[in-house]
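Reopening this one. Same input as before:
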Amino acid sequence: MDNTSVDKLREEIKKYYYDSIGLKVIKPVGTVKKYVDSSDFRKLLNMRMIIQVLIVFVMPTMLLLAVLILHTFLKVIKVI
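Same output, byte for byte:
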């Protein structure tokens, strides 16, 4: 393999990895203001807000529900 093929393969693997972990690569073109005003930036903020809501509200509720179900199950089988 020549260097060009290796470089292309390396870039392809890097792009696949970044996509798999949800990393957004921003090319250094335009201005910061232009990116902040873009729909990509708004989508990124919306996704972050959704994740925060899930962590703050949904996860504790699911944990409480799991504890209640476990407690009820243990009562039914007369462990408690």
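So the earlier flakiness isn't reproducible anymore. For the record, The chain is about 80% helix and 0% strand.
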